[in-house]
Amino acid sequence: MFDKLILKLGDNQFYNAIKITFTAIVAFFIFYSSADFTAAFTVTLGALLCAPIDISSNFKHKIIGLLLVSVLIPIISFLLTFTYAYFLVFTVIFCVFVFLSAFISLFGHRANLLSFTLLLTISLSFIHHDEPEKVLTNCLYLLFGGLFYTLISIIFYLIKPNRYINLEVAECIETTGEYLELRSQLWIKDADREKIQRQMLEKQIRINELHENIREYLVYNKARTLNSNNNRKLLVALSSLLEILELAMTNTFNHKEFIAFFKDDDSIVAEYKTLAHNFSVTLKSLAFHIKTNKKHHSTGNLANDFKKLKLRINEYLRSHNISVYNENALNVNNLLFYADKQIEKIKGLERVYKERVNADELRGKYRDLEKFFTPEHYRLKTFTDHLNFRSATFRYALRITVTMLIGLLVGNIFNFENAYWILLTIVVIMRPGYGLTKQRSTQRVIGTLIGGVLGIVALILIDSNIILTVLAIFSMLFGYWLSATDYKIGVTFVTFYVILIYGLLTNNAETQLVYRILDTVIGALLAYLTTRFVWPTWELNSMNIYLENSLKAIKLYIIEVKYYYIKKGEPTTSYKLARKNAFIEVGNLMASFQRMIQEPKRKQLNRVELYELTVLSQTLISSAASIGTYIQFHKTTEASKAFKLVMDYINNNLSQALHNLDFDAEITSDTEEDYKISMSELKAIRKQEVEKLDIDDALKIQKLEESQLIIDQLIWMSNLSEKIEKTTLKMK
């Protein structure tokens, strides 16, 4: 429990919350005056509005982003406040600003954060519309607040420039450990394997994101890669993490068969599960020591545990008179090979953080790194291509424009006090998809109610302004910290500190709470209704695109596996890229499915088939990757013509699946009969080849292992591709 608290206090969200809170407090007290505290609030607001854009990445991009938003905030505020008296002109400018701010989110993560910041700015721009004579002064205060936050952010960065990326790597190590922990649970006899597989897919999505963040950092810091010890560590660590995940994903086992095989001594399976669990424990321990900046010491001895397990398994085989050529014995050898290799990779990752990394270890690791990173391109063509109703971003931009305009009119017509809270609620809650908007609407209303009630209770029971101020500061810190991980709790703390501040500065905090709750409910209701009925974007449409992309990516990867088996040697860049894209596209498909099941039932067409296709796609690329991994770590025989024909058959099934879904795909004239003949030939050829070879038993076993693994995977992949084709036929 204590370790978890230490980890939570050391994460990037807490660090950013401290930075935001510190900036707000310092800015407020510098400009606070008992006569007029408007300046203090405005400067603080300018600083807080800049915070969302402050993501840790390339230092140059960080500064450019913060300076840009620092300038845009006062410009937008000036134009909207200045034109507020001319309502028609104001409405046009307001709608244009909202639409463009929402629309730029299509340019990627950084642009999405800028979009959110600008929408917040628009919502708060005309708070002081009744004081037009102060508009220029207030805008200068906003500008100063933004520049002040930029300065504080630079100082925090210079104090610990590597903190962000080291924590990203630590989180990646920890999440990979959680993935391996889920794999270990598959060895439980009565495990809910379908549920575990679902959870593993969710972890993969997050791990892929973290890999991309680390790549981005390394690409943008290319000039310092060879002369920075930290960057050398990052480079080798990323390579090790990719290999650990790849080994895990590409070595799939029939757990029920293994459990049945060791039925006479089920403690062997339990011992292997413990070893697999200790993979996770070791990685989590390493992540903990990186986050707490402590020297890492191994929690156990994986190599010794593996040796003991291997001796027990060999003894079991001997005592049961099981031949080393037996099919089950070969499968056990492949299981042991995986465990041995995984231990090697985990120990290699540990060594990165125990010693300095030599430049020799970088050889070839940086090569082509940029090709694996997906840069964000801000092209005008991207903008114009999405100016149509086929684009989900275009519909979202129109929808939020209409919603905020309605919210503005409701606030004006009914003369709500602080009606801008309606707009703030819409901005924070509203998302392109229905499911997330609905979820956040509920969470925000609940969080506002709880936080508001707690705030009023605190004001009634506590007489000391000092205690209330301390509570407000800590509530602000916790609000910004927890909003990213638990939105409802984050909103609770934010509302709590807002009510405390009103209570400290005015005598009508109870009235403000009523208005805040009312405005929140109205904003949440508007966001929910318009997302549901105004140019809605249903995930089913997007999922079809993700399904097409994933099937095409798998096809390309299977082609690369086929050529890799033929050519041998080190994996080529095209092979690695195809593998990465296949896993990412299937991850996108899974994420899309999760969003779809949050939508109304009538919008979940072919839900069963889509889930089945997601799982089948994930299993298929894992099987294909297991062949690639085996080739990488073993000296394999020459690929036969039958092998090529079977791989072509698998790809042809995927092409037929795409064709069933009305997507473009080239279908060859290969028949199922060709496949059956090829598979029979493959089995016969492999058996005859091995039996005729004049080699020692150890080498013969190795070749039988290859034969067993390759043929089993080909049969499995063929069955999976057939299921994919049949499942898509149901959806036709």
In short:
The protein is mainly α and 732 residues long. It has helices at 2-9, 12-31, 38-50, 59-82, 87-103, 109-124, 135-159, 163-185, 193-220, 229-250, 255-261, 267-291, 302-319, 327-352, 380-385, 392-413, 420-429, 434-461, 465-482, 487-505, 509-533, 539-567, 573-596, 607-633, 641-660, 672-692, 697-731. Pfam families: FUSC-like, FUSC_2.
Summary tags:
Methane Monooxygenase Hydroxylase, Chain G, domain 1; globular; 732 residues; mainly alpha; 27 helices
Layout of helices and strands, plus pairs?
Blueprint: H1 2-9, H2 12-31, H3 38-50, H4 59-82, H5 87-103, H6 109-124, H7 135-159, H8 163-185, H9 193-220, H10 229-250, H11 255-261, H12 267-291, H13 302-319, H14 327-352, H15 380-385, H16 392-413, H17 420-429, H18 434-461, H19 465-482, H20 487-505, H21 509-533, H22 539-567, H23 573-596, H24 607-633, H25 641-660, H26 672-692, H27 697-731
Helix pairs in contact: 2-3, 2-7, 2-19, 3-4, 3-7, 4-5, 4-6, 4-7, 5-6, 5-16, 6-17, 8-9, 8-10, 8-12, 9-10, 9-23, 10-14, 10-24, 12-13, 12-14, 13-14, 14-27, 16-17, 16-21, 17-21, 18-20, 18-21, 19-20, 20-21, 22-23, 22-24, 22-25, 23-24, 24-27, 25-26, 25-27, 26-27
Structural notes for this entry:
- The protein is mainly alpha-helical.
- The chain has 3 domains: 1-161, no CATH class; 163-371, Methane Monooxygenase Hydroxylase, Chain G, domain 1 (Up-down Bundle); 539-731, Phosphate transport system protein phou homolog 2, domain 2 (Methane Monooxygenase Hydroxylase, Chain G, domain 1).
- Helices cover 76% and strands 0% of the residues.
- The chain has helices at residues 2-9, 12-31, 38-50, 59-82, 87-103, 109-124, 135-159, 163-185, 193-220, 229-250, 255-261, 267-291, 302-319, 327-352, 380-385, 392-413, 420-429, 434-461, 465-482, 487-505, 509-533, 539-567, 573-596, 607-633, 641-660, 672-692, 697-731.
- The longest helix has 35 residues, at 697-731.
- The model is unreliable at 223-227 (pLDDT under 50).
